[in-house]
Amino acid sequence: MAKRSTKRTTKRRKAPPKPPPWRRALRWAARGVVAVVALVVLWVAAYRWIDPPTTPYIAAEAARLGAVERVWLDMDDIDPVMMRSAVAAEDADFCNHWGFDLDAIRGAIEAGGSRGASTISQQVVKNVFLWHGRSWARKGLEAGLTPLMEALWPKRRILEVYLNVAEFDEGVFGVEAGARRYFGVSAGDLTAEQAARLAAVLPAPKRWSARAPSDRVARRARAIADGAATIRRDGRADCFGGA
Q1: Which domains does the chain have, with CATH numbers?
Q2: Around Cβ 97, how many Cβ atoms within 10 Å?
Q3: SS3 of 117, please?
Q4: What is the pLDDT of residue 29?
Q5: Using an 8 Å Cβ cutoff, are 197 and 213 in contact?
Q6: Is the pLDDT reported for residue 86 higher than 70?
Q7: Which of residues 112 and 149 earns the better pLDDT score?
Q8: d(Cα 223, Cα 229) in Å, to the nearest integer?
Q9: Eight-class DSSP state of 94
Q10: 166 in helix, strand or coil?
Q11: Residues contacting residue 22 through CB under 8 Å, at least 6 positions apart
């Protein structure tokens, strides 16, 4: 009598169908976006401790002019009166916002866009990570990077980087180079008047002079000196150690 075979026949499973090309492309695009976002976050986080070696604007000016003047100065070596003057000039509520001054933005809108509303934080993002010029693309990136930087950096670091990348004269970047250019002293030895004059030229450093200020710049410097004293009294300098 013939024995029955005990071997079972197994059906081969069919391989799952490959996803369509558009789905694979979408998946790789999503991975690319995640990778770019992660790199940007790491870049912003790194500059909390690493001093930016240059910026896109400084590099462009160095190429245009042949060379620029720039000396990095740690915050501990900058006179607090210069810190207060810069804040009074550019962003009096620096310690009280998270990157955007909504009251200033509303005021700028009501004024028809004739005055700026950028905070020091926004200016740092623009100067260090982006490019100059008016475009919706840059504004959009600035709007996303500003709260990220505010979350990762303390206020003192934001102001330190600002004072070291701001332009004080054509081809002169950073408060130390500006103090030496105009007054022949270090930024740690500025008087209240000298600090106010330096801060006064920040909106138009290529046209305004801190050494020989026009009537407009002189009036602005006096207002800045008063504002610097005010924010010291009312505590708005506490977040960056400018008291």
Answers
A1: 53-240 (1.10.3810.10)
A2: 17
A3: coil
A4: 85
A5: yes
A6: yes
A7: 149
A8: 10
A9: G
A10: coil
A11: none
Higher pLDDT, 106 or 227: 227
Query: Beta 167-169 vs 172-173: how paired, if at all?
Result: antiparallel
Judged by phi (left if over 0) then psi (alpha if -120 to 50, else beta), residue 174 lies in left
pLDDT the model gives residue 111:
60
Residue among 242, 241, 236 at smallest CA distance from 95: 236
Q: How far apart are CA 57 and CA 124, in angstroms?
A: 12
In the block, tokens 């979350």 appear at 151
pTM of full prediction above 0.90: no
Cα dihedral 176→126→170→168 (10° resolution): -40
Q: Quick one: residue 2, left, alpha or beta (phi over 0 = left, psi -120 to 50 = alpha)? A: beta
Whether 121 and 158 have beta carbons less than 8 Å apart is answered as yes
- Report the alpha-carbon distance of residue 124 to residue 128 in Å, rounded: 6
Best CA proximity match to 100, nearest among 128, 74, 120, 83 = 120
CB distance 87 to 94 below 8 Å: yes
Distance CA 199, CA 218 (A): 11
Q: Return the HEC string of 1-56.
A: CCCCCCCCCCCCCCCCCCCCHHHHHHHHHHHHHHHHHHHHHHHHHHCCCCCCCCCH
* Model confidence pLDDT, tens digit, residues 197-242: 999 999 999 999 999 999 999 999 999 999 999 999 999 999 999 7
- Residue 101 to residue 29: CA distance in whole angstroms: 35
If one compares 87 and 30, the residue with the highest pLDDT of the two is: 87
Q: Which two tokens stand for residue 32?
A: 């690319």
Q: Is 6 exposed, middle or buried (0-12, 13-18, 19+ CB in 10 A)?
A: exposed
